[in-house]
Amino acid sequence: MQIYLDTANLAEIREAASWGILSGVTTNPTLIAREKGADFKAIITEIAELVDGPISAETISLDAEGMVREGLEYASWHPNVIIKVPSTTEGLRAVSQLAKHGIRCNVTLCFNSVQALLAARAGAFIISPFVGRVDDTGVDGMALIREIAGIYRQDREITTKILAASIRHPRHIVEAALAGADIATCPFKVLQQAMRHPLTDRGIEQFLADWKSRMSS
Ligand code: E4P
Known about the structure:
TIM Barrel; alpha/beta; 8 strands
């Protein structure tokens, strides 16, 4: 399973990219809005220069015509840019039109497996089920990933990748991999938490103490 970073913050992207683990980046209008005053095109093109993988830029139009217009523009900024459209009928129409231009789409805000099946049929490159937001409703978000993985597996024509979105904690990453996700997009904080373990810290301390005692004996 690949790891994407779910942020528009360039410092976080630089840091995670330097760890050698990043295969792509997802952004959305909320994440872009957090980067106060920064120009959308400048942020997306800089991310696309930093990470050589799919960089999701989200459309804001509600109609397919507008999504296609925005998608064509964003995709012209850099070959790594892919276009995020919502899981709506207009989104499906936009995916199939953008696919004819050779532009890859990430169908976002997916909350049921029928949306995922239809997105795949329309030619989506990525489907993004929102695990954490489903969990928030009291329903098991990871069950959605498992169901979509089952549906996609039994249909050889489907090549759409399953991206576990709305990841809230390190255990979500493990569960997404076991449930059959191809990608998990993670907030920077969750990746930092994932690499922290008290026994790792204690082990380093012990090894250093033993090494120093050896030098002084
Ligand atoms: C990624 O593509 C999604 O936009 C993101 O994971 C949503 O996460 P949230 O539910 O924490 O806002």
